[in-house]
Hints:
The structure holds 2 protein chains of 2 kinds. Chain A is mostly helical. Chain A has helices spanning 2-25, 28-53, 61-75, 83-107, 112-131, 160-183, 185-195, 197-202, 207-233, 238-241, 244-257, 264-283, 289-307, 311-315, 324-332; strands at 142-143, 235-236. In chain A, strands 1-2 form a two-stranded antiparallel ribbon. Chain B is of the alpha/beta class. Chain B contains 11 helices and 10 strands. In chain B, strand 1 and strand 2 form a beta hairpin. The radius of gyration of chain B is 18 Å and the shape is globular. The chains are: A mainly alpha, B alpha/beta.
Amino acid sequence: MLKKLSYNSVILSIGLVVAIALPFFVGRSLQAVAIITVMYALMATAWNFAGGYGSQVSFAQMIAFAIGAYMVAWSSPNATVNVWVFVLLAMVLSAVIGFAIGSLLSQRRIEQFYFVVVTLALTEVMRGLVATRYDLGGLAGLQVPLEGYGLELLQFRNKVGFYWILLVALLITLAVIGLVLRRTMFGKSLLLVRDDRDYASSMGINVPRVNGLTLAFSFTVTAFAGAVYTQYLRFASPQVSLTLDINIVILLSVMVGGVATIAGPIYGAVIFIAGQEILSRTIGSGTNLNRFSEIAFAVLVLIVVGNFPHGLAGLQRRRRGLTQLDLARVDSDSGEQR
Amino acid sequence: MTSQEITHDTESATLALRCENYTRYFGTLAAVENVGFTARAAATTAIIGPNGAGKTTLLNLLSGMLKPSSGRLWLKGEDVTQLGPGARYQRGLARTFQITRPIGALRAGDLVTLGAGRLEKRLPAARDKARAVMEDMRIADLWDVELSAVPAAQVRLVEFARCVASDPEVMFLDELMAGLTPSEVDVVIGLVRTEVSRGRAVVIVEHVMQAVKALADDVVVLVSGGVLRTGTYEEIVRDPKVIEVYLGRSKHGAPADVEDVDLSASGESV
Lengths: 338, 270
């Protein structure tokens, strides 16, 4: 137990130091990569809570993302109220919608493949709704006018500000997930609900409620990411804020990094965003060679997913199972406690 | 006949579970038909019968996983017929599962803690209780082990511990002994006895006659979805009808004593 804790804290400390130091050592363009990477890490972490620890392979994350995006984009021209109010509003609204989707689908036993299909369809419905709304800019989207800079306006003259705010959000999200998993009955019930819902409900666990709450949390975090991203781009549109591409990259990040691990989604996001960017730069960009970098990257992903089913995080995660030898020992001196 | 007295003594305080006229159809087939039996507190009731007799269906009906076509069920005098498995569990009716599906990522200790969570709503208290139960059963070493890494025989114990930790009034044990070596069976028999001595009503569905003989105060013999016979172990093993069901009509005449025959093996082959 102690060994494991110190190991985790070492990794966490190193990661944190690198993350904090990074913006001071890289140029503007790499800073942009860092911002997007942290945003994906945040969203992949959120996805992993519902899709990794939970059973909800969600393709509806963009609904929450778009709620965040459009809430700030729509509100900003009529800025009598602070933008943060709308960020919070978006998070609350996303939580409610996430709970509704998660619990209703769970109640109707729409799971696994069917869950994927239904959430995909919901995203399309959302896209249709937004694209045909004139007051939301339709397909053309909405510009976010610049009214000044500062944390209270969620705008930064130096774009690194977005990096910091996303990093803080990521740390808070990780802390919350860690606490929930370790310190609450709810967290302990997650894996059981994921792996065998009938078994879980026979123990009096309210499965739809658990699924609703997990997706609600996932949506809340994703809505925040959507709002920050929109402030960063100063633009929201169905193409940018409601694209399935983002959802797919989130999912792949978690798969490559390690499903149902704390660090996995972060590894995955770093590999996916930073890795892809660096690969395309070294191999060459703006030319036909750029295609080649995408292919090379796809091969890399296939290799990782094919050879390490538990993702990159699974590499350093020693299975805590006992070997047969250990078990023989357990049998002979069982009752002895650590 | 003791079992008959028990059946009529419905208001007795020691009566933990009573089911009456339980019937379940699958299509036109009656998987369970007019089953009635009682389980006393601080006693073990064994449900035995050849494969296909409807034991698993009955267990699923009693624990609420299935709804009966007709019949009623009382738990400590309360009619729980309409309640789902979760609600029955909350009222103190717990069962073990023959875990076949992987719930591998969960740690053994966490599973037992979730069991303790029935009465201990706060995690630290539930965890303490779970640990105590696992220590009692001498499986505390498995606390931090993921279930996928726990060998089958030990998974049974973890599942049993999960059930015990929920502090149930009535406990169904679904073939807890299947696949265990005779010496392992003896260990589990001891553990079950401990729970009976704590006043729980234990209902075992079991093929392993070693366990039935050692544990059962009352035996319910289920055949083709119906109750063939209830009685003590000594009574049922000498009942010609029971012997016939288990062994079939022998050309050489029925064996003198059913105990000479491995009931579980013949039960499997039916």
